[in-house]
Structures are given as structure tokens and as C-alpha cells.
Amino acid sequence: MQKDKIGCEPQACRVCARGNIVTPMNRTGRHFLQIPGPTNIPDRVLRAIGQPIIDHRGAEFAKLAKEVLEGLSSIFQTNSSVVMYPSSGTGAWEAALVNTLSPGDRVLLFETGYFSLLWGQLAQKMGFQVESVPGNWRAGASAGELESRLSADKSQVLKAVLVVHNETSTGVTSEIAELRRAMNRCGHRALLMVDAISSLGSMEYRHDEWEVDVTIAASQKGLMIPPGLSFNAISQKALLANKMAKMPRCYWDWQGMLKSCETGFYPYTPATNLIYGLREALQMIREEGLENVFRRHERHARAVRATVWEWGLEIVCSVPQEYSSTVTAVFTPKGHDADRLRATILEHFDLSLGSGLGKLANKVFRIGHLGHFNDLMLTGTLTGIEMGMRLASVPHKEGGVMAALYRLAPAGKNLAAPS
Ligand SMILES: *Cc1c(COP(=O)(O)O)cnc(C)c1O
After folding, report:
1. How far is the CA of 19 from the centre of ligand 1 (A)?
2. pTM, whole model, 2 decimals?
3. Alpha carbon of 369 to ligand 1 centroid (Å)
4. Which of these, 217, 222, 227, 231, lies nearest to 274 by C-alpha position?
5. I need a surface site. Which of 69, 232, 240, 408 has the fewest CB within 10 A?
């Protein structure tokens, strides 16, 4: 279809089946980007990113880099090292592997969803032997299964256990502390590597306390900055493994990056303006308080689930203790294409939702409720979905959105009022 100068399809408003006037591709007001990453970027962060670039080999940059690495350590809850790459999260997956392993090493991967599957494929392409623990994509990694697999590995052939903390494709969280306890119970030496890309800065995460060896993170989810920065938090044990690891590495080499942590000067050009954004985002998280950020995400996730249940739809995560606080994946009723629903919602209400990934394609839509987000963005999102379901004739109980409103504003609980 031909587009006009501002990219809209020059098509008159039309009247839908219910007699409402609908504008094709309503582009007035703000777009609602409620995919589970990249997430909405606060204006403060956008302004920070818009500052003039500086010399990355000058003293000002060194100060900036040190400041953000310190701030990040408090988000990872670690006293150990954090390194930062100008890359998407996939790069940090690769970095974790090439810095700690040798060619042909065997790793254990929990297939909890699409992202774990991708991480496993990456490991396989790099020549590692990937032992996959299959899953139904509706529950997290099982500590019992981990314990039995590691106990069976008497000669300790497995060098690493790969787990995605928050499966963004399914809205399922794995209990990392429990997995670590299972590893410790069998006294296995494998490294624990955790992808916290869509949980870090939004959900409780403790790199040191949970004895994670490498945590992988990225900028575009809970950290509220554009895609393009990724991170590894590295335990002492992982640093030791690094000394023995024989995988060839250059761009991802921790050693060059670790030196930069001391000097503030990077082995190659850093993503300076994204780092400005990161500094601002970390400041915002400090102002709100990390614990408050976690509580906000939990509260919003509960409100979303209340509405989904009220609609009579099914949530992908089947284990209540494993509900994600950042993303909720929802099955559309049988015979109703989730992508068609998403397209209707985008067309009529300018709201983007996450698609079903891999084997969940067309079957689910995903609501991102993380990062720079508030009550009205949440209720707006749910309202958009409910209106979309009406337009697309997706069966649901009408008014389900009220369940979220009641949860967010319980009657008579005006906490802000002076006592
Ligand atoms: C978004 C995401 C990724 C993908 O990272 P890229 O930045 O696209 O390379 C990996 N893992 C999880 C859990 C994610 O949410």
C-alpha cells in the first residue's frame, strides 16, 4: 500500500462492525511499546544519550566508565568484576562461554524456552557439546533434575550449567538460588552461568549470594536504555577458569576488559553515549531504590495476571512460584491466532505486544511490564488488549481489565492522603 510523507497509509477512517469509527494506524499521542524489550526509554535517559560525545581515552570518560561499573555492581549485587561490551545480549552469551571454556567442552543447558534454545544453539555452533535438559516451556529449570544430572556425572565432564533466569519467551522464572544449592549438594565443579537479561534491575537478583559464576545481562530490558550494551558479572571461580580456558577470543576477552575496569580505558571504542544513558538510568534506579523497583514490578505483574484470569485466558507459566515479574505470556483461545490479535491491537490502538516465539508462535502474545512503567501505562496496555479482543472477536470475559484497576487502587486505601 502506498504511504504518504509521514508513513501513514492514506486511508479514510472507517466504521467497524460495532459502528465505532476507527482510524487505521492511529499515530497520534505516544506509541505504547509493551514488548518485553527493548523497553520504553525515560526522557531523562534519552537526553543523557543526546549529549555530545567525548574522547574515550580522556580522563572524563575514565571517570564515567568507573562510575557506571560501580553502579552496575550494586544492581548485580556483587563485589566481583563486571565487564561491559558494546553489543547486544547475544554477545555477552558468547563472551561467557569463550572466556571460561575450552574447545569441545560439555555444558548442561536447561531448555526452558526460546532464549535458552538460542543460547544452546550458539554454544553448539561454537563447538561445545550441549547436553540439553528438555522442558515443556511452562516451568523453570528443575533443581531436582540438575542434581540428578550432576550426580550422574561422576568424572565431572560437565564444565558449565547454563540457565536463563527469566525466560522472556514464556514469562517463567527459574529459582537460581535453589539450582546453586543443588549443585553444591553434589559437590560438582561446573560453573553456573545465568542469563539475567530480562530480570536484572527489575527482579531480585543476587550474583554473589547465589554463587553465580557468570551473569549475562544487556541494556534494553530492565535497565531502560537502548539495545547495544551487554555485561558479564564474573565470580572469582570464573576468573580462575578464565586462566585455563583455551577457546580463542579477542573481542570478548575479559582480560582486556578487566584492565579497563582499573584504568577506565577500553581495549576498543566503547558505546560512549549509551554509557551516558546507563549512568542516568542507574541514577533513576538509585532514586527509586532497588527494592522498590522490585516491588513495583511484582505489583504490576500481579495486576496483569488478575486481569488475564478475569478474561478467562490462560497464562503460559504453569507454576505460580515461577511467575515472571517482567513479562506475562498469554495463550489466545484455541483457534484464535495471537498474531492476528496483535496486528489488530497495533493497527487500532498503536500498542505493540510481544509475539509468540519458536513453538509458541501465533499461540501467545506477551505483555512486557518492565522498566520505565507505571500504573496508567499498565491499565492502558490492558485496555488496549481488551479492546483489541473485542474488535478481533477473541472470546473473553468483558471488563476483565477492572480486575487490574481494583488491584492497583483498592477502595479506601488512599495511602498518599495526610493522616
Ligand atoms: C532479550 C533477551 C535476549 C536476547 O538478547 P539480544 O540483545 O537480542 O542479543 C537473550 N536472553 C533473554 C532472556 C532475553 O530476554
Report:
1. 42
2. 0.93
3. 16
4. 227
5. 240
Q: Is the pLDDT of residue 187 over 80?
A: yes
All structural domains of the chain:
10-41+290-408 (3.90.1150.10), 43-286 (3.40.640.10)
Pick left, alpha or beta for residue 19 (phi over 0 → left; psi -120 to 50 → alpha; otherwise beta).
left
Backbone conformation region of residue 408, classed left if phi is above 0, alpha if psi is from -120 to 50, else beta: alpha
In the reported structure, the alpha carbon of residue 23 is separated from the centroid of ligand 1 by a whole-number distance in angstroms of 34
Instruction: Name residue 104's amino acid.
Output: G
Lowest-confidence segment of 27-31, 37-41, 377-381 by average pLDDT: 27-31
Q: Nine-digit cell at 225? A: 536504555
Whether pLDDT at 2 is above 50 = no
Q: Mean pLDDT of all residues in the chain?
A: 94
Q: Residue 410 carries which side chain, given as an amino acid letter? A: P
Can you say whether the dihedral through the CA atoms of 96, 366, 8, 225 is positive or negative?
A: negative
pLDDT at residue 61 is higher than 60:
yes
Geometric angle at alpha carbon 131, from 254 and 229, rounded to 5°? 30
Angle between helical axes of 375-391 and 338-349 (0-180°, round to 10): 110
Q: Hey, whose CA ends up nearest to atom 2 of ligand 1? A: 197
Q: Which three cell numbers mark 23? A: 482510524
Q: Is pLDDT at 4 greater than 50 in this prediction?
A: no
Residues with CB under 6 A from ligand 1: 37, 88-90, 115, 164, 168, 195, 197-198, 218, 221, 227
> What is the C-alpha radius of gyration for the chain, rounded to an integer number of angstroms?
23
CB neighbour list of residue 32: distance below 8 Å, 6 or more residues apart: 349, 350, 351, 352, 377, 380, 381, 384
